[in-house]
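DOMAIN: structural biology
WANTED: fold as tokens
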Amino acid sequence: MAETKLNTRFGELSIDSSKIITFPKGIPGFENYTRWTLFHELNEKGEPVSGVVIHLQSLDDENVSLPLTEPNLFGFNFELVLTDSEVADLKLESSHDILVLTTLSAKNAAQGAAPLLPEDMYTNISAPILINIKSRIGMQKILVGKKDSKVVFRTTIEV
């Protein structure tokens, strides 16, 4: 299988073509970026730096990555209703094939600043990232009527 090499802020990444996730319509704010991959940041021993953060790395711009998390790690489970169009866009055959992730953000985060505290982190539950793990097609679903839908972590996590 062909590999794509990227020089990211995490170092050089080798992306197997079978690991590429296509977002046909892009992601809001990144509409022109349609090829992405997921990865955990690794330490020098090759171990994940955090079991909480998953990075969504653009293959169209190596300077763009989004920190994501699995909301169920913090006791939040989605019950989503997808439109027929969304099911078709994702080529979804079974609800078991969908991976739901949410974007992570931090209040007052500056690159290279002091370590983040759990209470400074939040996730946007009003716009989950949906990925069909079989077809490797993704989308961001904007949930309407979910004003101020952010969950602040009130548990100790390692970042």
